[in-house]
Specification:
Layout: H1 22-35, H2 50-80, H3 85-104, H4 108-114, H5 117-124, H6 134-142, H7 150-163, H8 165-177, E1 183-184, E2 190-191
């Protein structure tokens, strides 16, 4: 099997369409790391006005797009050569940022569900651009009976980072370090 460095460029992912390169990834990571702290300004305020709710949802949407780009780029670079520590580190950083964003934004759904339904409906018709999130509101309202309190949702979100370790270790070991022996099938052909 060819090494990644030996593969023809036409046979590889073109991740530069997503993120221009490692330097761009680092700038985007720094930007998103700063933006994630913005959630705190909205905690406990989503029921105040349609504008506060819209601004928080826009922050969450924009940050979700950035963390997804960071995550996918780093993950795919890591998958090119699972022994490359640089991209393993970038992937771990992207994943950690994603977990942090989930933790810091965990109040959003419980707070939306705590808004009086008539008030929420008024907010949704306010004309401030919030109608962009109509499908998200439908999905949030549909899971009302399955949503925990704000404190419990935050606790659950905080557990993500701690519970991912074993699976990641297995995948790294399985994909990079384990060398399986050649076996001979029933028709006498050797394969790995």
């Amino acid at each position: 099997m060819k090494k990644r460095s030996e593969a023809a460029v036409k046979d590889t992912w073109k991740l530069e369409d997503m993120v221009a390169g490692d330097g761009t990834w680092e700038r985007l990571f720094k930007e998103a790391s700063h933006e994630v702290t913005g959630f705190e300004a909205y905690r406990g305020r989503l029921g105040e006005s349609a504008d506060a709710l819209y601004e928080c949802l826009m922050l969450d949407d924009g940050l979700s797009r950035k963390t997804e780009l960071l995550y996918v780029y780093a993950r795919m670079r890591s998958d090119e050569d699972t022994a490359n520590q640089k991209y393993q580190d970038m992937f771990a950083r992207a994943q950690s940022l994603s977990f942090k964003a989930g933790e810091l934004s965990s109040f959003i759904v419980p707070e939306i569900l705590a808004i009086d339904p008539e008030v929420l409906e008024r907010y949704r018709k306010s004309g401030n651009g919030i109608s962009h999130f109509d499908r998200a509101f439908e999905m949030i309202l549909a899971k009302r009976s399955h949503t925990l309190s704000g404190e419990m949702e935050e606790l659950l979100a905080r557990s993500c980072d701690a519970t991912q370790g074993a699976g990641q270790i297995f995948n790294m070991f399985n994909n990079a370090d384990v060398k399986f022996p050649v076996i001979t099938g029933e028709n006498g052909e050797a394969s790995r």
